[in-house]
């Protein structure tokens, strides 16, 4: 514990000295002399005058250091039956050629490139190619619908869009090109070029004037060199759900991110160069950006890129097979994946087929590791089962059990302790510190450590309003939680309208905008309710307009289809209830927390501000009749 305390205190008391030391662990073209500066909003910026290139640090540097023949990527795709290994040298060469292809299309330092790809090695090649040129990538998860892609294209204004012809799910091939075409048609901003990786499962028609075939472009491209960028120059924009309909473009800088990821690979994940790291996520999420793409290669490790699911590809033993086959040392996924495995293979019979003695730690994040899943894993495995907490904005863990620094006993339900650099505090509504065991808003005192968001793309006001305004001097995480007497941190859930479905962050406000846009809907609320598998799922409660004469089932189905069409299947919006009234305060605010408590079968008090107490009974009965929430959950367990 004292090793942790010493390191933590130093990171908080002398942040500049601490991070200047860590910065030496990655290769710079020009090492930074300015370590910490503050922007106009008093937000921390790191390593402003240093010059580097993250593609160089992750690939060229390792080739130069003699790692050229070491695998950089193990790609494993049970959905297509393919496997492929790329060494560091092969990866560097593919990236340099694709960067040359992008350059030939006019992409320069600072330009944006939107990437819409499944879990194929070329997704990583495209990301690194952007980094090589100093261009800013914005990867959009494949489960998002054309509208969501259009919103991101319009906001990021990319010069080029890079996509694959299709994604492959468990039982079907999903065409991507029509989604890209529709998104470009919907967006006011038009990219100059669209590069398509043709996959043999479904080739796309490249008929439009802006379309280019990946392979043809690369065949004639000259390899491009790494372009030096400043420590504070942007590496990527990653959109995430906020509380409104418009996603937030989280901007990540280059130098601070590289330093933080490298540090995390050592102290949190205990990874040494040459070892294998497997993060079962998707390049479309922050976990994918940080711990599939950048961190493992910055550290000289091998990363496993998995195009498959925890179950059904072909069975619930998939993760055990991958760990054993690739000799994975640290494995990282979302708790929901293990809930799915546990459901199909409750006694973990499939694990008996595999030797997973290589595994030294299992990390979980994306949502709280619920105690039943923690205990199931803890009983099953001989290695530490570690919940760690972070978010798209921070880019790396805020709280964890630091395996490479000072492993601590785990506690079910806790993400253990703040990672060095993160001065985590719990505040009450008035901004006063809470005592041990008292729940409040979880905030981080400025300066945030390197690696965290630089801002919201072209929207400093939104950045300030969303994160800095609530408690001056502190970054608002949006999560609620408490610290116990031993300093262990417990994150208990969001305090805003963001929900977490199967480890994916979604905005109920955005779904409400879509549902409320249906001509028959007068009023609606979308809430996140407990789900035994996905953690939470959204449920819509809808009041039709006066005079609505259609049938309710048709309306419900239309609303489900609308959300799928506008946001995408990943929203998992599958339940809508038509009700006569919704519980509201006298000032007209819908009592969403109360609705959640009713759905989850939790005790609730009736607030004195409620306008029409009988509305509660209405909602209660509608949920019971349709087995929404607790009733449904009970039947599934
Ligand atoms: N492209 C297109 N569609 C996609 C997609 C992609 N990349 N990923 C998911 N979808 C679709 C699915 O096909 C599904 O559509 P459907 O409603 O037509 O069936 C929908 O989006 C929901 O997908 P998913 O959440 O994956 O649900 P599932 O029931 O297929 O699988 C789990 C359940 C638990 C196995 C799955 O959610 C899972 O693997 N979760 C782990 C999540 C994770 O790793 N998160 C990373 C954060 S750390
Ligand atoms: P995302 O930005 O998609 O990574 O989602 C971040 C949000 O997921 C956080 O603000 C939390 O609400 C939740 N989350 C992620 N990891 C954890 C965890 N280990 N424990 C509790 N909540 C978590």
From TrEMBL:
Residues 510-589 form the AMP-binding enzyme C-terminal domain. The keyword Ligase applies. Residues 4-58 form the Acetyl-coenzyme A synthetase N-terminal domain. One of its GO terms (molecular function) is propionate-CoA ligase activity. Keywords: Ligase. It is an enzyme of class 6 (ligase). PANTHER family: ACYL-COA SYNTHETASE (PTHR43347), ACYL-COA SYNTHETASE SHORT-CHAIN FAMILY MEMBER 3, MITOCHONDRIAL (PTHR43347:SF3). This is Propionyl-CoA synthetase. It comes from Halomonas cerina.
């Amino acid at each position: 514990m004292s090793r942790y305390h010493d390191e933590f205190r130093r990171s908080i008391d002398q942040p500049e000295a601490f991070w200047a030391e860590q910065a030496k662990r990655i290769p710079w073209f020009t090492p930074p002399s300015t370590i910490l500066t503050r922007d106009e909003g008093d937000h921390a910026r790191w390593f402003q005058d240093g010059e580097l290139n993250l593609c160089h640090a992750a690939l060229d540097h390792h080739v130069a250091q003699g790692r050229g023949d070491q695998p950089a990527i193990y790609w494993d795709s049970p959905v297509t039956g393919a496997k492929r290994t790329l060494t560091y040298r092969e990866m560097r060469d593919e990236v340099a050629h694709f960067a040359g292809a992008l350059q030939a299309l006019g992409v320069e330092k600072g330009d944006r490139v939107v990437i819409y790809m499944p879990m194929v090695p070329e997704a990583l090649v495209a990301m690194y190619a952007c980094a090589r040129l100093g261009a800013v990538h914005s990867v959009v998860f494949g489960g998002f619908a054309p509208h969501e892609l259009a919103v991101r294209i319009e906001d990021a204004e990319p010069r080029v869009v890079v996509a694959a012809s299709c994604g492959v799910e468990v039982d079907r091939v999903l065409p991507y090109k029509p989604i890209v075409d529709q998104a470009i048609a919907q967006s006011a901003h038009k990219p100059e070029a669209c590069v398509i990786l043709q996959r043999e499962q479904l080739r796309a028609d490249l008929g439009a004037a802006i379309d280019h075939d990946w392979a043809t472009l690369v065949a004639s491209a000259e390899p491009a060199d790494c372009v030096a960028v400043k420590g504070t120059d942007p590496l990527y924009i990653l959109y995430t759900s906020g509380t409104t309909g418009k996603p937030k473009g989280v901007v990540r800088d280059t130098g601070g991110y590289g330093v933080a990821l490298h540090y995390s690979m050592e102290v949190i994940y205990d990874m040494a160069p040459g070892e294998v790291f497997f993060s079962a996520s998707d390049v479309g999420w922050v976990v994918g950006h940080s711990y599939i793409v950048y961190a493992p290669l910055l550290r000289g490790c091998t990363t496993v890129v998995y195009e498959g699911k925890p179950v059904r590809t072909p069975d619930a033993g998939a993760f055990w097979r991958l760990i054993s086959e690739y000799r994975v040392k640290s494995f990282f996924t979302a708790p929901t994946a293990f809930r799915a495995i546990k459901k199909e293979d409750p006694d973990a019979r499939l694990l008996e087929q595999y030797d997973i003695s290589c595994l030294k730690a299992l990390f979980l994040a994306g949502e709280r590791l619920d105690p039943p899943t923690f205990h199931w894993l803890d009983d099953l495995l001989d290695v530490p089962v570690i919940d760690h907490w972070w978010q798209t904005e921070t880019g790396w863990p805020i709280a964890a059990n630091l395996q490479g620094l000072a492993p601590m006993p785990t506690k079910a339900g806790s993400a253990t302790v703040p990672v060095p650099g993160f001065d985590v505090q719990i505040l009450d509504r008035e901004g006063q510190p809470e005592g041990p065991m008292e729940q409040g808003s979880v905030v981080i005192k400025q300066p945030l450590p390197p690696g965290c968001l630089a801002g919201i793309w072209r929207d400093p006001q939104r950045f300030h309003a969303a994160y800095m305004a609530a408690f001056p001097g502190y970054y608002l995480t949006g999560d609620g939680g408490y610290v116990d007497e031993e300093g262990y941190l417990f994150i208990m859930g969001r305090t805003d309208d963001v929900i977490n479905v199967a480890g994916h962050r979604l905005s109920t406000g955005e779904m409400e905008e879509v549902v409320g846009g249906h001509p028959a809907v007068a009023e609606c609320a979308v809430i996140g309710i407990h789900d035994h598998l996905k953690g939470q799922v959204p449920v819509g409660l809808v009041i039709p307009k006066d005079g609505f004469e259609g049938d309710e089932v048709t309306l419900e189905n239309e609303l489900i289809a609308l959300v799928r069409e506008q946001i995408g299947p990943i929203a998992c919006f599958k339940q809508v209830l038509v009700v006569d009234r919704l519980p509201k305060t006298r000032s007209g605010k819908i009592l969403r927390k109360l609705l959640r408590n009713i759905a989850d079968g939790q005790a609730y008090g009736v607030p004195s501000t409620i306008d029409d107490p009988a509305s509660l009974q209405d909602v209660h009965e509608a949920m019971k009749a349709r087995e929404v929430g607790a009733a449904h959950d009970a039947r599934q367990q």
